Write the structure tokens for this entry.
Amino acid sequence: MTIASESRLAQLKQKMETRDARIGIIGMGYVGLPLALLFSGERFRVTGFDISADKVDTLNAGGSYIVRIERADIQRAQKAGFHATTDYSEIAGMDAVIICVPTPLDEHHQPDLSYVEETVKSVAPHVRDGQLIALESTTYPGTTEEIVAPLLESGNRSGLKIARGAEESGIHLIFSPEREDPGNDSVARHDIPKVIGGCGAVAAQVAAAMYGSIFRRVIPVSGPSAAEMTKLLENIYRCVNIALVNELKQLCMRMGIDIHEVIEAAKTKPFGFQAFYPGPGLGGHCIPIDPFYLSWKAREFDFQTRFIELAGEINSAMPYFVIEQIAGALNDRVKSLKGSKVLVLGLAYKKDIDDLRESPSLTIIELLREKGAVVAYNDPYFPTVGHGRHYDLNMTSTPLADLGSYDAVIVVTDHSSYDYRSIVEQAQLVVDTRNATKGIDSPKIVRC
Ligand SMILES: NC(=O)c1ccc[n+]([C@@H]2O[C@H](COP(=O)([O-])OP(=O)(O)OC[C@H]3O[C@@H](n4cnc5c(N)ncnc54)[C@H](O)[C@@H]3O)[C@@H](O)[C@H]2O)c1
């Protein structure tokens, strides 16, 4: 590296350290908005970009649309210079741009990178020499190099190239996975180490200076593909282990063993075991989706990811298993599922959050309706539910009253605000898919 390049790198790093760098975050969703607040809390001037004019207007009016983010948090950020916009021309004024847009699967269960592609196409005409571009959306190894880099190079007006090796001019491109666990307050966000894979050495160092200002530890890896794969390994590890306990739960039920008692005992081993818990099926934007990004990419290499396929098979069968258990429990009470009044507790994909993406509750409600049950739901986070890519419910949350009038109450999401003892007291039958009634002894409870 030349002396001039060292000083340029030093300048970029210094801008991060002195908080003079301007940070643009694209995608003001569950990932991007909290990240914007973190940077703002560290005295950076942050601009939030989104295609949703509603979200932008809400933020600029000092409001919030995510339950765990208070209006006061947004207003504090505004005082520190935060604003939101739909106008991509503001990209030119940013020193760093972080992309946090969705990466779902399409109807054929294949990666849908259209949000990432559209975003990069919108960013490219405004990129500047020396700007840092970071992709945080979860995706398969190769996306940053094969999709993002060419779009940035072909779409910018100045003929800028991605800076590689120790080059200090050009576009500094990195991948850094988001590793947040919504609703998990046991680890502060700044204590989650930040993995960084840069296309070039300067990109990695500038990114380390930027993320190092809000995360206590940064973990540089050799390049974007290693960083992309790191995130997938983490999520596949979860997905496979959840499938394992979901399968073992079914075996334990046949054998008359309580899987939760077994997990609690196994968890006391101080090494070599991490506890995962069975449930009604996978949910959320990550665990049910991300593994299939890798199995899709693996096919390009004539490789079959058998663990992922098997885990997917077991986990996606869980809502059907729950329906069988409900039908069996009603049968024992000389009732049929058809015509029974059923109350589903919880729509969110996990407890205490306002996110229902891929939630097993949605599948369970649809299956119950298909079987002729009369279904109601309650969820303090969702007063209503309409329709989405994979469901069409159009329902309103029922108050938690008159529980004895239902033939069965099904705990699908174990929100902390529910009083399970009182629910069991009032209900005729409680089918508990989350071990939420642990410690309550009643013949009315069927745990599955
Ligand atoms: N939610 C999580 O817990 C979590 C955790 C780790 C990783 N991730 C990953 O982070 C990424 C984002 O997830 P999320 O949960 O924040 O999604 P989200 O749907 O909550 O937010 C995405 C935002 O991007 C906006 N958007 C879409 N296209 C855009 C465009 N072209 N320009 C500007 N804005 C655009 C949407 O309007 C939305 O506000 C995904 O890849 C996801 O897999 C999510």
Remarks:
- Residues 281 and 317 are 7 Å apart (CA to CA).
- The pocket of nicotinamide-adenine-dinucleotide is lined by residues 26-32, 49-52, 55, 100-103, 115, 118-119, 122, 137-138, 178, 180, 182, 285-286 (CB under 6 Å).
- The radius of gyration is 24 Å.
- The first strand starts at residue 22 and ends at 26.
